[in-house]
Design a protein that fits this description.
Blueprint (H helix, E strand, L loop, with lengths): L1 H26 L3 E6 L4 E4 L1 H6 L22 H14 L3 E9 L2 E13 L5 E10 L1 H52 L3 H28 L10 E5 H18 L3 E6 L6 E5 H17 L5 E11 L5 E9 L22
Parallel strand pairs: 7-9
Antiparallel strand pairs: 1-2, 1-5, 3-4, 4-5, 6-8, 9-10
Length: 335
């Protein structure tokens, strides 16, 4: 009686362990399945059974690919399975299959199953549904191609624009230089000189835009080069001088003696920021002056210094309540 009881205990433990392993197999993620040498299914997990519209995972036993939802792809699937079992080499690849949710793309990994004599007796496969990922990849590819086309169009547009703007500017410059040579009135010659200087600054700015547009990295790049900082400031003054004079404003600049003339940085960005600030200062100043000041703050490292470039004016100023938001994109104090 003791022996029978012990035997029953062992059987109970084995059954419990088998049930435990069965539960694990049933709940495995992905589509798990195994077949014999004749490409006949011997089992699968719950997800595979659901995808095949089977009542249970045991219902797949004895069926072939040709008997299941993906019958149209059975020939290709059988060929892959047979190659794995014949060569004894694992397979990883994408496969098409018709499932309960429609035709999908699956990333499958298949390995040969062997017995104790190392003979191949079947195949174990695990497949993951990558249909959504492939769709996203396709959409990203289309989006990237569209972006590249848009970028190419933008580049061509800027090149054409550069030509179309440069031609009349060069014409203005030539006519202005000629008028300077035949004009005797000192005041008029001064205005003509202002026009020529502003035209030169516009041509230089145009060159910067073209150079900037030729760097196509997807992000807005820093163009770090050595340049003359004082010349940039003088260029802004020359470019905006006519606008300041039209409102009878003084346009001034102060460049501290301890500030180096040559610096390394992004000339294009600095020029654009200063131009915007000075332009706004002139726009909102009715009398007095607009002034650019460049001062030395401190030396940070052997070759690094901290400078302050300020644009001041005698205009209406910015109300304190707008100080936190005025630098937000597309934000204005007065709409």
């Amino acid at each position: 009686m003791v022996v029978i009881k012990e035997k029953n205990n062992i059987i109970h433990k084995l059954e419990a362990k088998i049930q435990y392993l069965e539960s694990i197999i049933a709940l495995l993620p992905g589509h798990v399945y195994w077949l014999d040498r004749d490409n006949v299914f011997q089992g699968c997990n719950n997800l595979q059974a659901e995808a095949a519209k089977l009542t249970s995972r045991q219902a797949i036993v004895g069926k072939k690919n040709a008997n299941l939802l993906w019958a149209d792809q059975a020939h290709e699937l059988d060929l892959v399975n047979s190659r794995v079992m014949e060569t004894g080499k694992p397979y990883v690849g994408e496969e098409l299959a018709e499932m309960a949710g429609g035709q999908g793309i699956y990333l499958s990994q298949k390995v040969p199953l062997r017995n104790e004599k190392d003979e191949v007796i079947g195949l174990l496969g695990v497949s993951f549904d990558i249909t959504d990922r492939k769709r996203m990849e396709k959409e990203l590819k289309i989006a990237r191609e569209r972006a590249e086309l848009a970028n190419q169009t933008k580049t061509e547009f800027i090149r054409n624009l550069e030509h179309d703007i440069r031609t009349p500017l060069c014409g203005i410059k030539s006519v202005t230089k000629y008028l300077e040579t035949i004009e005797d009135d000192v005041k008029k010659k001064e205005f003509l000189s202002d026009i020529e200087i502003a035209t030169n600054e516009l041509l230089n700015y145009l060159d910067n835009i073209v150079e900037f547009s030729q760097i196509n990295t997807g992000a807005t790049p820093l163009i770090v080069k050595e340049y003359n900082l004082e010349q940039v400031v003088k260029g802004i003054i020359n470019l905006e001088l006519a606008a300041a004079r039209s409102k009878q404003l003084d346009l001034l600049y102060e460049y501290a003696s301890n500030v180096p003339a040559m610096v390394i940085g992004d000339r294009f960005r600095l020029h654009r920021m200063l131009l915007n600030l000075v332009n706004n200062a002139i726009k909102f100043t009715e009398q007095g002056h607009v002034k650019i000041s460049v001062s030395f703050i401190e030396k940070i490292a052997e070759k690094d210094v901290l400078l302050e470039i300020a644009v001041g004016d005698t205009g209406i100023g910015i109300a304190k309540k707008h100080h936190e938001t005025i630098y937000d994109k597309f934000t204005r104090c007065d709409p």
